[in-house]
Write a structure and sequence with these properties.
Chains A, B: Residues 13-218 form the Cytochrome b561 domain. Chains A, B: Its cofactor is heme b. Chains A, B: This is Plasma membrane ascorbate-dependent reductase CYBRD1. 2 copies of one chain form a homodimer. By secondary structure, chain A is mainly alpha-helical. Chain A has one domain (4-272): Four Helix Bundle (Hemerythrin (Met), subunit A). Chain A is 72% helix and 0% strand. Chain A contains 11 helices and no strands. In chain A, helix 1 runs antiparallel to helix 3 (47-65). The two termini of chain A are 18 Å apart. Chains A and B meet through helix 5, helix 6 and helix 7 of A and helix 5, helix 6 and helix 7 of B.
Chain lengths: 278, 278
């Protein structure tokens, strides 16, 4: 792969930053706050940032870059789609549990739900993410959707995925802002106590993590080779394309068939088809 | 242009949303808050959201899509670069005045500066945006940078531009969150007074504006034709390329020369060169 070492360095940096973000949010709630519990009180609320950063940021980020891993290139696209869908399902599950935690906490403390911009954008993101997952499953994983529909929906799927990822990170930043203002009283947020600096740093880590993930997936040279070959007019065909996948146990060829069919129908694969991420 | 009417519909939607956001922030500060003044007090602070949304969101958004306007395709790339740089300079100027307003307000009210995540991310964004502008001017507008350097830096310039645009929007959302928590007391933010709902709506408008701008500029089929031709191997050359620009008064050919030179040097224009936005 072209630029393999740079890719590796960026991937390792992203993983480290994501992992560090999870450590930071755990230190935040366990050391600076009330810990973790499921009692309807502050310790239950604390599952909200922990699960959002672990699931909706870190796991979602991995789900996005998973198509780019060069070690998976010998695996079929179908297997990669399964992994992609699986990771996104984990991310959504954690996000939903995290929402239950915050609604529970609000209801126990008689705090209204859904009044803040954080909650508005966040809930819209979770709903759209669920729709994206269902639509992705029906259109790209199940074998029923016709080629033209897949080709039509793929760029929307890719863009929505990356845009939602960015929106989730923006929502995390709003959440951190809210929580630090509400939780820090003496000293207050404006007096920059240690906790404020620590959690602001968590916010910066999450932004840099998102920046690296988005950079990796938007580099054309790091796309799966099959897609690059199709972009340049399908230089490798038939047995040679099949050979690309022979080392992986799962030899599902739907991806290959899709590409041939799309080429017959003269679809613009660069613009509308076959790309797993931008 | 392929998909002209869809492009037009999206462009008009983006402009309406951007314009509406500016109206909303003006109504916020003039109707719900203390109005606008330059007195070191709350009315001076109010320039901060007004100038950020007008300059750093709306004008920056226009600066990003300006390369995509089909009516400018007969203009030289150099002229478009000048407009792009000019709009970004206006955006940065408004952002800096907006920062002065908030620092002035903080200093008068004895509120510490730079304690919040909003201020951290926001200041980093302004600094990186300034660097981006200077670097863009030196590398792409001045005629001194060698081709290989331009080709090397272009994808970074494009990505950084879009990433900073997203970061600015995230920072606006944090700013709205902060301000509503601090400003609304009786009734408080959590009681969802009219102002809270109105300003939350402003936040949603800004996100949708950003989403449409990013969608427009990341569609390959809406790139300037010259770039598309280069991607497909430079089918149109010489006089024909010149003819594309003949109707525009400014017939600067540096762009054309760049493309020929880059082709000679066998650079990957798709990946590394010549693209104005992703």
């Amino acid at each position: 792969m072209e630029g393999y070492w740079l890719f590796l360095a960026l991937l390792v940096s992203a993983l480290l930053l994501g992992f560090l973000s999870v450590i930071f949010v755990l230190v935040w709630v366990l050391h600076y706050r009330e810990g973790l519990a499921w009692d309807g009180r502050a310790a239950e609320f604390n599952w909200h940032p922990v699960l959002m950063i672990t699931g909706f940021v870190f796991v979602q980020g991995i789900a996005i870059v998973v198509y780019r891993l060069p070690w998976t290139r010998k695996c079929s696209k179908f297997l990669m789609k399964l992994i992609h869908a699986g990771l996104n399902t984990i991310a959504l599950t954690l996000a939903i549990i995290s929402l239950v935690a915050v609604f529970d906490f609000h209801n126990t403390a008689k705090i209204p739900n859904m009044y803040s911009l954080h909650s508005w954008i966040g809930l819209i993101a979770v709903i759209l993410y669920s729709l994206q997952l269902v639509l992705g499953f029906v259109v790209f994983l199940l074998p029923f959707a016709p080629i033209y529909l897949r080709a039509k929906i793929m760029p929307i799927h890719v863009y929505s995925g990356l845009f939602l990822f960015g929106t989730v990170i923006a929502t995390v930043l709003m959440g951190i802002t809210e929580k630090l203002i509400f939780a820090l009283k003496a000293p207050a947020y404006k007096d920059s106590p240690e906790e404020a600096v620590f959690v602001n740093t968590l916010g910066v880590l999450v932004v840099v993590f998102g920046g690296i993930v988005l950079w990796i997936v938007t580099r054309p040279r790091w796309k799966r080779p099959l897609e690059i070959q199709q972009k340049s007019g399908g230089k490798r065909e038939g047995n040679e394309e099949g050979a690309t996948m022979k080392d992986c146990k799962d030899t599902e060829k739907s991806n290959l068939e899709f590409s041939r069919e799309a080429r017959k129908q003269n679809l613009n694969l660069d613009d509308a088809g076959q790309r797993s991420t931008m």
